[in-house]
Design brief:
The chain is of the alpha/beta class. 42% of the residues lie in helices and 20% in strands.
């Protein structure tokens, strides 16, 4: 067994040089191989045996994947230079080849083309595995809510029930040629602007994907998979796309992804990667996320002024990716002090926001790792006071069960002060990037109409209270705002 199947784009010489740097290790059943949070930069290639991947979630240890011969471990911490997102234990006696990061980095700098071939190979394997194994809400934690979900089905090769349009195959090839041409340009002052050609190629591919799905909806999965297979190695050259697609925290719209989108600073592997990243950051999806942050920041600032006579305004976030909106709303001394309560899916997200908000003037904060699903079921462990403002974004699009979404609204209603406000974010069924995000990024979001969003509030404890919908002007998302009347 060698890494050929996993790193399929490496040449024979690449593999020979890589294998020369391998260290062989053996582990016995239940022995720890990688510890969650470990910052060791290395790739572990499984030669024999099987391993289980586990993660701590809301105080519980949940096993969510089993890997075997031919699989690679450690790719996320290697790619992103972050701590390991999960622990790995030997399920049985295991034999591994370990490639230390400094050895791989040395090959990248000394062997022409190795870096591109290595990352593109790893990207394909990584994206498929993440889509098959990642869960935002592990079933063991929410056994009462069978329809609460992160990705509703594994992204496996579909059974073809019809031919993928030949025109689409041509368009995928044209995309690849355009990106390769941009990648080949070696000087920044070339007569042709490479961004124009890259932006046109990416935009044309995105449009082609949606057009063919609209024309042949019965072939949607086949069309999506065809485009994914032909373009993923190129899109993964973009840093933001790679993070959004691979989901380091195992759910979309995590703080890594949203922070990059909010900072809006393109980067990637080589020139082509940076140009693709620049295009990706112009998507309606990304602009909508930036607009959402600005609206939330303005809303928090308005709450500080509205409740200034109280001296302190209590603001709570349910699963906000970065809490940057809280920081932006705390840059002046107008209005009440903000007592911010943040509930997070995991400790890494909490640490990110804590570091971001520490030192902010006029801000007191309480941050917790808490399962929002448990809160709605009345099983939360944190006792929380009533709030002036609660906002929840990046959450209900994971839930296709409206009845449970209503239970979450009821919980929020009970934790608002009279005349307090809940803001709920939702992706709309008019999202123009829906096909791209679903089939290329693997974000299988639940999209709702504005009517359906209003109905959720009407069915909840908010009852007949007026609901104000504020769209982003792009058709991607809306923020629904409603006050507790009693």
């Amino acid at each position: 067994m060698n890494p050929r199947n996993t790193l399929e784009l490496l040449t024979d010489d690449d593999l020979r040089l890589l294998m020369q740097k391998a260290d062989r290790h053996r582990f016995v059943k239940d022995e720890l191989i990688v510890e969650e949070g470990s910052r060791r930069q290395a790739l572990f290639f499984i030669r024999q045996g099987r391993v289980r991947v586990v993660r701590t979630y809301s105080g519980q240890v949940v096993a969510y994947a089993t890997l075997g011969p031919g699989d690679v471990i450690g790719e996320m911490s290697f790619l992103e230079n972050t701590g390991a997102s999960a622990s790995v234990f030997a399920e049985e006696d295991v034999e591994l080849d370990v490639f230390e990061g400094y050895h791989v980095n040395a090959l990248m700098t000394s062997v022409p083309g190795f870096s591109t071939r290595f990352f593109q190979s790893l990207a394909v394997t990584l994206a498929h595995r993440v889509r098959e194994t990642s869960k935002l809400i592990p079933p063991l934690l929410v056994e009462e809510i069978p329809r609460a979900q992160h990705m509703r089905g594994p992204s496996k090769t579909p059974v073809l029930v019809g031919e993928v349009p030949e025109e689409l195959s041509v368009e995928v090839k044209e995309f690849r040629r355009a990106i390769l041409a941009a990648h080949a340009l070696s000087t920044p002052d070339a007569s042709a602007d490479p961004y124009i050609s890259v932006s046109k190629a990416c935009g044309s591919l995105r449009e082609a994907l949606s057009r063919h799905i609209r024309q042949k909806p019965h072939l949607e999965k086949e069309i999506g998979f065809h485009v994914l297979g032909g373009t993923l190695p190129f899109f993964m050259l973009s840093d933001t796309f790679r993070i959004a697609c691979t989901m380091p925290r195992r759910y979309f719209e995590d703080h890594h992804t949203v922070d990059r989108i909010l900072r809006n600073q393109p980067s990637g592997e080589g020139r082509a990667g940076t140009l693709i990243d620049k295009w990706f950051l112009t998507l309606s999806l990304c602009e909508s996320i930036r607009k959402r942050s600005r609206v939330l920041s303005d809303t928090i600032r308005e709450a500080r002024i509205r409740w200034s006579e109280h001296g302190v305004v209590r603001v709570m976030s349910l699963s906000s990716p970065t809490c940057r909106e809280v920081l932006d709303a705390s840059t002046d001394e107008i209005g009440a002090t903000t007592h911010f309560t943040g509930l997070f899916q995991d400790g890494d997200a909490l640490s990110f926001s804590r570091d971001l908000l520490t030192g902010s003037r006029g801000l007191v904060m309480d941050l917790f790792v808490e399962n929002v699903l448990y809160l709605a079921l009345g099983r939360g462990e944190v006792q929380l006071p009533q709030q002036h403002l609660i906002y929840c974004v990046g959450f209900i699009e994971h839930l296709d069960d409206d009845a449970f979404a209503v239970r979450m609204l009821n919980w929020a209603h009970s934790h608002l002060l009279p005349q307090g406000t809940l803001i709920l974010g939702s992706f709309l069924d008019t999202n123009p990037d829906r096909h791209f995000t679903e089939h290329l990024l693997g974000w299988e979001l639940v999209h709702r109409s504005e009517t359906r969003l209003r109905e959720l509030f009407a069915q909840s404890a908010f009852g007949a209270a007026p609901v104000e919908l504020k769209g982003d002007g792009l058709g991607v998302q809306a923020l629904a705002s409603c006050r507790r009347l009693n």
